[in-house]
């Protein structure tokens, strides 16, 4: 096992990054450009996107709460009138109960989705109009955002366009909040609404598909419009901490192959090595906190392999005795158990990690595509039987653990 | 179940296969797991023009991440027809011909296999050891690349359809890019799961030469 090496990673990176920074800064400033406005003063969503979100749309069987009686098909196809988008406010939430087995179909296909905020799921769907849709899993409201899928952040959804080479930041009402000319890279907004990160590959060919490309990690400050070079790594995962402002990078230095989980706090440059080692996967920040879950595999030391909870404040590392098929909510971790007909979710409270809930899903999850809502009240998954994206309520894990 | 993956060489294959996994140990974070599916994976898409160009841009096998030195075992009875043959998957590979007409290829082996061409093997016999195509120190990308081809070696088939296994569990749920499939906005439901992937004809045109995808 490799322990924390405070400061060493930063020194190493500065040694290599300073010359590179000087050489690349000019090119970066030329090749990447931001046009837009700063973050909203009062972000409408509470949680940031998780690392490398996958996505999936779904459909709606028996809504938990609907404003007006409507059929399932109507819920699927209903769109929000343009005039209603401008004065949108958060929908009242409905606490799912143990008796409530409602299944909400959020999209008809495709298995691409990410939680955007409390009760809001961003999905890609083809009906009634192809594109990224925001779906309120309580009210059934659906908002078409853009022709493509994107990454949700505090107040925007970042939608890359590989054709134009630009990423557009869409507000939740569908209007544009700015563009980033970065080649159309996938970008990751943070929970504060101020920062956006992405990586730009510097090399084309790699010796194996399992080897990540050498990339420049970039951060945009939406408040000032300035871009910052963070570092140069073989990047295998990018994510912001659950409270934002701290960028997490799984990667290794190209020069001396120092690998592990790195943290950067923009606008100050430099990356700190939080946990050294190879083969870190399934990076999952805990929403609303400065903790993160990550899994180490094939380290050569079986005692080091498995799931780790890392507290970025204290640098503390905790080895968690749970399976690797996990997702994280603010106060709970959920592990998927594969079943013959129905999969099951087991909830563990954070930070004490006691089993606090169990929920049998209505079907099997297809291709491991599932996500827990940041508040732990919902699970969205790609349903095997019909390849729709569905949302089901979960029992209250945090309530049990507090009791 | 296997009818859709019959090789072209009619008469040389049977309609079913009963292949086994290439490891004796159970999957786990310290042993092995599926790191890249066959087909239109995110990783394959990103490397379609170079690494996977010969395979029509798709990943034409299944990758099993494992520590270097892990013993690789024959997935079925057969006869060794190539050791370090001209089939890529460096640094070392082995090809076994099976009675049902399929051939299995074991790639990225650590060292030259002790097997000899013409030698008979049974399912579960050692074939070689897992190696790393990216590093002699085995610290970059150690894995087994397993392919199933027809007798002509010109077509590759999805091993998921030909090997009896509880495949869902073999990823460990790690959400690696190789465990995901690219969505083409032109055809968003095509080739999106491990069980829905096309056969590959080596040297054929790119099947995934898309510009507008998620992710890219």
From TrEMBL, chain A:
InterPro entries reported in the protein's UniProt record: Quino_amine_DH_bsu
Transmembrane helix as UniProt keyword: yes
Keywords: Membrane, Transmembrane, Transmembrane helix
Transmembrane segments: 12-30
Domain of life: Bacteria
PROSITE patterns: PROKAR_LIPOPROTEIN (PS51257)
Name of this chain's protein: Lipoprotein
Gene source species: Thermomicrobium roseum
